[in-house]
Design brief:
128 residues; 0% strand; 6 helices; mainly alpha
């Protein structure tokens, strides 16, 4: 190296991943076509749109109902059983006022919740 002369350029370091990558525009076009096809297909299947359809499908993914927002699981539990429990508790406790009535209902729901798991069976509880 001579004084005043610029240093030689550093060798270009390239990653093997970059050298092996296919940089042709074809995959990009295929991706755009796939996205367009997905959007077109999504217009055909958007799930239930009527209130009746939404009501019918709302419990499709229900497994055991232990954390369900529904107090009674339609088709699996009898609403008359919960009503009988609540009626009996109201006769026993004789709630006066809204707060006491809510507390008695919570007792009934807790009782119902405690009775539910044994009726599920081992297989349903464990997702079999």
């Amino acid at each position: 190296m001579v004084v005043g002369e610029p240093p030689p350029p550093a060798p270009e370091i390239r990653s093997p991943a970059i050298e092996d990558a296919d940089t042709s525009p074809a995959p990009r076009r295929n991706l755009v076509r796939q996205i367009e096809a997905n959007r077109k297909n999504a217009l055909h299947s958007t799930g239930p749109t009527t209130p009746e359809g939404k009501q019918a499908s709302r419990l499709n993914a229900l497994r055991h109902g232990l954390r369900s927002k529904e107090v009674i699981i339609p088709g699996q539990e009898n609403p008359a059983e919960l009503e009988a429990i609540l009626r009996e508790l109201c006769e026993d406790w004789k709630p006066e006022g809204h707060t006491e009535l809510l507390l008695v209902e919570q007792i009934g729901l807790a009782d119902r919740h405690n009775q539910t798991p044994p009726r599920l069976g081992f297989g349903k509880f464990h997702g079999e």
